[in-house]
Amino acid sequence: MSNKKFIGVLRDITDGGLCILDTSIQIAEYIPIDLSETNEALKKIDVSSSVKLAEYVNCHILKHNSKVAYGGYLEERTIYKRSTHFNQQDEGSKRNIHLGIDLWCLAETKVLAVLEGEVHSFKNNTNHGDYGPTIILKHQIDGVEFFTLYGHLSLVSIENIKPGYIFKKGEKIGVLGDSEINGDYPPHLHFQIIKDLQGYEGDYPGVCSKNNLAFYKANCPDPNLLLKI
Length: 229
Prior knowledge:
This protein has helices at 3-12, 50-63, 213-219, 224-227, and strands at residues 30-32, 68-71, 95-98, 101-104, 110-112, 117-125, 132-141, 144-151, 166-167, 172-175, 188-194, 207-209. An eight-stranded mixed beta sheet has the order 1-2-4-11-8-7-6-9, with helices on one face. The protein has a two-stranded antiparallel ribbon with strand order 3-12. Strands 5-10 form a two-stranded antiparallel ribbon. The protein is built from four helices and twelve strands.
């Protein structure tokens, strides 16, 4: 299946946006946030500290009288420099381009299945800067198979599920974890669409290098095709 057809299938699933967080949070309470390396404000804080980064994110949310800050697809970020998990090598090989959308909000916020899907796999990815508890759902829409990844969840979220379990659209699949369990980040959901999971289980790269961007951009299209925030 061509990438153009795949994107068309995703875009046509719904005319309106699909809900991924607690439905008590209104779409008007979502605000975009820029965490790219070109954001001059981030150069003034220690982004290697989850506490300092949380202060920045929370201030941004409060300033705009919102509850969720979102964004980050294909954003080049400096926040991954703190972790050896993102193999800091030459400029073209370092992994610093974000492949999903992040939704920053309070720990314990409910996370919902955007579509009906089968639990493909789940895992606690414990590297510093990694996802922490993660769930991957498999979907079949109009004969097209694809996957959605929900990262930075709580440990409780993966305690009582098993591969093959079916989550209905809008059903709670877990809650957000805090910095002690989610890879040492301020609480947030990393949501990613994946065309070919390439044999991964409970994990898939959420950040890529410039050298591999063409492949990952095609394999992991913009999550806003579904969310439409």
